[in-house]
Amino acid sequence: MDRPTVQRSLEVWLFIAVAATMNGMFRSLFLVPRLGDHMAHVLSVLILIIVVLLSSSVLVNRILREYANSDLFLIGILWVVLSVGVDFVFEYYLLKVPWTAILHDYNLFSGRIWICVLTTEFFGPWFMATDKR
Description:
This protein has helices spanning 3-35, 37-63, 69-94, 99-104, 114-128. The protein is built from five helices and no strands. It is globular, with a radius of gyration of 15 Å. The protein has one domain (3-127). It is mostly helical. The longest helix has 33 residues, at 3-35. The two termini are 14 Å apart.
């Protein structure tokens, strides 16, 4: 994967990160009071999955000109690593959220489906590519 591809991928991920932050504020301020925590979480995750898929489509079908399947999966890995890293660093060090609370969002057995966003980030660039090579 060449440097311009990495740079464009980071730019698109930054857009996704900003959208995720806004989505989180929307969830906290509007969805949780109306739907409760669990339904707000599910709806918020679905909204973010749509954002990731649309962003992936724009990246691979409009911004990048040349790519291989391996590039698409490397972009997915990059996005997941950045998302998990920012999630843990931001919540733990800046918001002072305890590790148990952070890890709670990764627990499918408690009804938390955040892992679906990370899965979409990983497969999204490949899935949305119209010219898979």
